[in-house]
Amino acid sequence: QVQLVQSGAEVKKPGSSVKVSCKASGGTFSSYAISWVRQAPGQGLEWMGGIIPILGIANYAQKFQGRVTITADKSTSTAYMELSSLRSEDTAVYYCARTGSYGEVDYWGQGTLVTVSS
Amino acid sequence: SYELTQPLSVSVALGQTARITCGGNNIGSKNVHWYQQKPGQAPVLVIYRDSNRPSGIPERFSGSNSGNTATLTISRAQAGDEADYYCQVWDSSTLFGGGTKLTVL
Fold this sequence. Notes:
The complex is a heterodimer.
Chain A: E1 3-6, E2 10-12, E3 18-25, E4 33-39, E5 46-52, E6 57-60, E7 68-73, E8 78-83, E9 92-99, E10 105-108, E11 112-116
Parallel strand pairs in A: 2-11
Antiparallel strand pairs in A: 1-3, 3-8, 4-5, 4-9, 5-6, 7-8, 9-10, 9-11
Chain B: E1 9-12, E2 18-23, E3 32-37, E4 44-47, E5 61-66, E6 69-74, E7 83-90, E8 94-96, E9 100-104
Parallel strand pairs in B: 1-9
Antiparallel strand pairs in B: 2-6, 3-4, 3-7, 5-6, 7-8, 7-9
């Protein structure tokens, strides 16, 4: 059974950065894309970007270009999402998600709450 | 940029059929996926590629996609179907609809 286990909740100051990890088990990590999706309190789902670990190529939503970096370590089956220049509007639950060939997400991490507050 | 439009809310009587729409320009040419999300939980894929059900999803959930509208249909609605539902498409990037809150009366 595929599992995506994310790192724990974070509290950050405005202007700082946060790095969230997502460790995969039970599947072929490199063969699928890993997407990062966030959800602000009471809001909808927002795609931030994704990576195909076997290729090491990431693409990002235009909104986050220059502020987000997504990487993957095939040796540990772990993906990372780093978001910089944090502001209060970045307070959200961040999910990693295994993404299939047609963009469908079949497995989700448990979510990581990132709170940005002074 | 491409946009997906969902109604904010849909209500359905217990045991009746709910239909949740997702509008987009020529969305019928794209692969549409649907997710169910209950409070405090991660989303769950309920329909992929317009009309396919993942293993474990009841047959009561079905999907269609044509023209400018994709539709998620939930037959014989149950109290447990109350949730937010999101459509999603993927082109060169992923886009989610704004979400629809389904209320079962």
